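ok so i was messing around last nite and threw this chain in just to see what happens. nothing serious, just curious
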Amino acid sequence: MKYTFLKYFLLTSILILTSNITNAQDGSAKASVKEEDKAKLQFNGLGRTIISQTGIDGDILDADSSTIENITDGEFLLDLQVNATPNKNSEVSTIIRLRNEFGGFFGAGMAVEVRELWARGIIADVLKYRIGDMDVVMSPYTLFNPDEEGFVNEPAVFAPQREVIHYEQFYTDENTRRLQGASLDFGLDFAQGLKDMNAKGFIARIRGTDFFTVPNRLVTGGELDFSTTTLSDSLGLKADFGVNFVHTFDDLQSGNATSGIRNTVTTFDFDVTILDKKDMAVHFVGETGMSNLVTAERIINANGDEENMTLTEEDDTFLDIGAQLKLKKQNLTLSVSFIDIGPDFFSVGAQSRRVDYNAEKTFYNRIGEDRNVRRPGLFDLTRDRGLYSFASSDRLMAYDPRYSNTMPYGNATANRQGLKFGIEYGEMDDKINAKIDGAFLKELRGQGTFELKSFNLLRASANFNIHKITSLKNKLKATVGLQIESTSRGGVEIEKVDLSSNLIELGLEAELFSKFEVLLGAKIFTSEGTDYVPVIGQFNDVQDFPAPYIADDQEILLGAGVKYEFKKDIYMTLQYNSYSSQLGADNPNDYNLNQIFVLYTMKF
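result:
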């Protein structure tokens, strides 16, 4: 076993050298295409090789003889994207994936699949359309993919494996959701008053039927966005505003399903520029709207006709309104907002989480003599693709209050009222870039009691480009991240809640010579106290409160490695990560994980 990792590492090195020789022939990683064919057919994509060896030890294994202490796995992967442009107004694209797991030589374990397929174009130079796979994002309360928990300003040493997760789950920096369907987009310009209007609409299927009890689930929606001309030249007064609509529904005519949901969210958002001068700008921003959630049942009436009957229905509203001040000379942005999200507000497209804590983990899902399911930690949140999903959920998914308790479902988290604030200085490439944001919130309605929980959240990050501060020739960058969160509730002893958690992140990127970096990083997490986490059933109603959630934990994740960038978007990294979990004093369930891996990524 100990030679397995070395064998695959040498094999990967040979493949890298071969690819570099091939690319060097024309000085580019892109496929060679004749000049006259460039407008017709293009090839690009991504290649990836990852080999890892993961080990486990600790107190929990003292009486456990069934857990394998070291696991070696990995994959060869090639995503080949083919873009065809039959004419100047249309384009067709597909990604063919070739994947082979380690140990699957001579064709065994090889998989070939279509990862992506879409067509798009323009009709009459006015109407844009797209059919097939698409990334869609609207407002944070209608259709949005909130960021996962477990990081604030993650050190670069942990970034490669998270990038793999984001690529595999179709996550983007714009918080889009991957859908499969069709969309239309067109715009209009106006002579006065209004500057322009942009209209978008889409329909997609987010769940297929099993032709028995599970119906097709579809989502449709759209937005109308308006911009005004400058209404006051002296002030720079102007406004952007829009209407958003999303409707998620089950098609009860598909299969033999007898019940389904209808979820409709309608909102109005705005960004009013009150003042826009050379040195300063002031914006009034916000969004407000309502949601409707219905469960319906398909029945057959006395005449033998099918009809739908409403079983339960809930409506609620939300308000998110605030102001933003931009000090242009100081490169400083200040913001504050008030939120009031109703207890029954529900949005399938905005509240579905990335992390599924009930999913099976890739590494050591069950450990110990009793084969208990291991609770996910920082190690898993940083690298385990098995925990992540881009699917939409029709009920509030489970969460871990240690990592995110204030807004576990993003900005659209229901049953919250209070203030949010933010301060940001500089840009990522400046000498110093820093950001602070947080929230002081409370519940609007108690869960299992009339007492209300209070939530305090503070997140801070800073990036120091030391090479720019000191005029060093090679890159030297330090990063810091901090999250402090607390939850409290009064009342009698059985009602009381007092949970606090802290996450510290430290990172260093040092370029020893051109394109060769040493990466170091640490994530330190502590959590202590008690909370009650409800069990959410169908229709998002609280079903039960299990035993108190008791935390007395400390997690430490350390990483060290090197990274060499052959050219833009082509790099190799070799790393070692060490993770320790201490679950309270004298707890026999403590365990440690370690992983050494090599990752080669090539975008072409």
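not much to say yet. The first strand starts at residue 41 and ends at 57.
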